[in-house]
């Protein structure tokens, strides 16, 4: 079943593990709508600035979101003084951070801070003298001033764009800048900065009560909260506030703002957000989410305190979910992908003892990290003309190099240390290859992986064992199946995600002839190629980053090159024919309800067909990841017991000397078939 949907789950079918990373929906409640509610279908109906003031006051007085003591990691170099309308050096005080879609660049007549206009912009009313201020930013300056906050931080006016040294520092500290803001103003209404902050006018109510004022602004609303001609309206009134926020969440996900790469970390690290989109305004902090007809919730949802912040320990589960949400986002310049992910990337570099290497957790987590798979064919990010050939860091072995749906469950082996992993498949990976990484082919190499298992933990780390499970005093709410290495509590310097182009290893290599027929992945829209042993039996498979229709007539007839990545195992249990048919029906129902995950028509027809003898499917939480289990060639005799295999990578040589290669696909080969194959140990560089 696709990553985001499960019809048996709450939140309009969104699976629970993704709920914390999507806007609004985990921080609302089922309280009934106030009678004054109506959809934002009138562009002339103003938005009351007092509503936003009420949210800020409620959060300042009742929540811990902004007041929680924490040293700000990085601070702005410059901010906009909204009263004097000029750029000033930031020293101290509250500032609002703007998150928006940049749009046209500095060379199109739109104002940006550069060395040449810095002194002019520092003068009182310098913004007016220079001119060319985009509409979104101009509206934000006015709103921040109306709310009584002194400063606004916006990247194009607060980073000297042609000072590469300062720009680099500010980009690396972007997460800290948004995290330290009084609140973040999200401008998702317009497709770029030339549009307005809001499609509706912003006005301040003259009445004392912001809620009473709101009633006066809504034409046709009486004390009982019904519109005068409600019977003629082509919309259904939501039942409660959760329905409103769920709907707004879907609207926000579809905006240009949410689909841009840079806004990912801006949203993730902001503690409080005032969000303009789809003709309305919403509030979201670490505790609650509210629409413009709400000032507070009756109680704070209990799960938000856990899910609303990043973990301080190596949570591979959290890494996988956030990476899957970042991967589909667009970037104007593909080479910016590391900077756009740097906020989350630097956090994971600090929490994973092996750091983060071109988007993959290192150390004892690296072998599992290499196994990422596309959920549907992903588009390769190509560097722009601004980058000289060879300077880009877009290696084939990193998911950051591709835009699209990466299947986070393909990383499930990475969180096998969680006690709950036994209920999620119990997939384990064992290192067999030592990996190193480097910036260039000939530059110094650094360890990427560790041949030690995750359970090789010093006794001083205070792990406590009880009934075969482990806990740690610094992570009291999580139960582990084994101890894991934890980051040092006080690092002398902040960790930075590393950017490397090359992987180096000495691994077993062989060639293998592909089965001439391509198959559809049971979940997603990628092609699956089968690998047969010398007896013609299924030995393994490869999942390609292309569709079955695109590869079916282009399957290589010559043997392909495979290298060993690691060894793995998972326990299997059989599935009854009744359960198999139920799962098919559930998948079909999901396909018919949601068109954003288009499954191929031949597969749908195959699923609909009622066969006289049902193939016994593998009942397993990882059935959508282990493509080989759904292949017609998979023998039902293997449907139970311990499934042991080797993880392999199909590589394509880039040089005549066959020393440098690129990733083509990743898959698995049954243990006996791989160990019985004649292989050669050789050094390989993967670009």
UniProtKB/TrEMBL annotation:
Segments carrying the region annotation (Disordered) are 438-470
Which residue range or ranges hold the Heterokaryon incompatibility domain? 95-266
- Bias-annotated ranges (Basic and acidic residues): 453-470
Q: What Pfam families does the annotation carry? A: HET
List the PANTHER family hit by this protein, alphabetically. DOMAIN PROTEIN, PUTATIVE-RELATED, HETEROKARYON INCOMPATIBILITY DOMAIN-CONTAINING PROTEIN
Protein name (database record):
Heterokaryon incompatibility domain-containing protein
């Amino acid at each position: 079943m696709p990553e985001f949907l499960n019809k048996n789950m709450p939140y309009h079918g969104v699976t629970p593990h993704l709920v914390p990373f999507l806007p609004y929906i985990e921080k609302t409640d089922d309280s009934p709508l106030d009678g004054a509610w109506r959809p934002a279908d009138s562009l002339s109906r103003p938005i009351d600035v007092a509503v936003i003031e009420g949210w800020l006051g409620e959060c300042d007085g009742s929540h811990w979101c902004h007041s929680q003591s924490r040293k700000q990691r990085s601070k702005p170099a410059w901010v906009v003084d909204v009263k004097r309308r000029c750029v000033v050096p930031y020293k101290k005080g509250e500032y609002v951070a703007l998150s928006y879609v940049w749009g046209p660049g500095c060379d199109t007549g739109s104002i940006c801070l550069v060395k040449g206009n810095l002194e002019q912009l520092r003068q009182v009313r310098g913004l007016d003298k220079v001119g060319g201020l985009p509409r979104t930013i101009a509206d934000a300056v006015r709103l921040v001033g109306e709310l009584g906050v002194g400063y606004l931080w916006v990247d194009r006016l607060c980073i000297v764009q042609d000072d590469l040294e300062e720009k680099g520092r500010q980009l690396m500290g972007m997460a800290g800048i948004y995290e330290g803001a009084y609140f973040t103003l999200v401008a998702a209404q317009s497709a770029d900065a030339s549009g307005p902050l809001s499609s509706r006018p912003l006005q301040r109510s003259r009445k004392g009560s912001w809620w009473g004022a709101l009633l006066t602004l809504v034409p046709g609303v009486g004390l009982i909260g019904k519109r005068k001609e409600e019977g003629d309206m082509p919309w259904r009134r939501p039942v409660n506030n959760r329905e409103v926020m769920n709907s707004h969440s879907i609207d926000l996900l579809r905006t240009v703002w949410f689909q841009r790469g840079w806004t990912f970390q801006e949203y993730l690290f902001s503690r409080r957000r005032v969000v303009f989109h789809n003709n309305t305004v919403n509030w979201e902090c670490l505790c609650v989410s509210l629409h413009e007809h709400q000032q507070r919730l009756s109680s704070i949802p209990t799960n938000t305190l856990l899910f609303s912040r990043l973990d301080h320990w190596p949570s591979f589960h959290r890494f996988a979910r956030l990476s899957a949400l970042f991967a589909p986002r667009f970037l104007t310049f593909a080479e910016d992908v590391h900077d756009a992910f740097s906020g989350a990337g630097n956090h994971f570099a600090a929490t994973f003892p092996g750091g983060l290497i071109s988007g993959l957790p290192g150390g004892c987590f690296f072998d599992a990290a290499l196994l990422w798979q596309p959920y549907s064919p992903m588009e390769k990010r190509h560097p722009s003309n601004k980058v000289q050939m060879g300077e880009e860091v877009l290696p084939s072995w990193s998911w950051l190099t591709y835009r699209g749906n990466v299947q986070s469950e393909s990383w499930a082996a990475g969180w096998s240390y969680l006690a709950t992993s036994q209920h999620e498949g119990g997939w384990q990976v064992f290192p067999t290859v030592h990996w190193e990484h480097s910036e260039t082919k000939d530059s110094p190499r650094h360890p990427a992986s560790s041949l030690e298992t995750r359970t090789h933990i010093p006794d001083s780390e205070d792990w406590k064992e009880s009934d075969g499970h482990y806990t740690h005093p610094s992570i009291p709410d999580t139960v582990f199946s084994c101890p894991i290495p934890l980051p040092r509590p006080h690092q002398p310097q902040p960790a930075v995600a590393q950017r490397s182009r090359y992987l180096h290893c000495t691994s077993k290599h062989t060639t293998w002839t592909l089965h001439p027929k391509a198959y559809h992945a049971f979940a997603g829209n990628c092609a699956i190629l089968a690998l047969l042993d010398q007896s013609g039996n299924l030995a393994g498979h490869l999942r390609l980053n292309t569709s079955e229709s695109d590869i079916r007539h282009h399957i290589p007839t010559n043997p392909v090159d495979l290298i060993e990545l690691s060894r793995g195992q998972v326990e299997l249990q059989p599935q009854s024919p009744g359960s198999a048919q139920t799962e098919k029906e559930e998948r079909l129902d999901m396909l018919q309800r949601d068109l954003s995950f288009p499954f191929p028509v031949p597969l749908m027809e195959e699923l609909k067909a009622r066969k006289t003898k049902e193939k016994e499917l593998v009942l397993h939480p990882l059935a959508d990841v282990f493509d080989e289990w759904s292949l017609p060639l998979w023998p039902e005799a293997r449907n139970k017991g311990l499934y042991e295999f080797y993880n392999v990578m199909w590589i394509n040589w880039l040089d005549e000397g066959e020393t440098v290669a690129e990733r083509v696909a990743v898959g698995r080969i049954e243990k006996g078939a791989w160990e019985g194959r004649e292989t050669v140990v050789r050094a390989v560089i993967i670009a």
